[in-house]
Amino acid sequence: MEETTQVVERTEEEQQVSPGSTARLIRNVRKATRRKFTAEDKIRIVLEGFRKEIPVSELCRQERISSAIYYTWLRDFMEAGKARLKGDSLRSANEQEVRNLKEENARLKELVAEQALQLQVFKKSLR
Fold this sequence. Notes:
78% of the residues lie in helices and 0% in strands.
């Protein structure tokens, strides 16, 4: 009987909450359960809003986003379009392209080093 009492007392001690831990817990839960939208999803939602088939408020309700988020995405979409039309933005390379370019660069550096070494050996043999 004493063992169960000790266990209950220990769990009550462990459950003591420090100030702000509830808010921290809520923040962490919201962060973990937050819906993450891909770029394609954002574009699809913004284009649906452009069609004006349904009101933006209804669209936001269907997609479970706030209208502020929709209008932020809309602004970003429009700014990206303006920059692209001006020709200001360059397409950014993805990770695979960067990795391939680095590998090719390393291979070419090796070839140049080998050729430089062969050239030095050839020059020394001519002397």
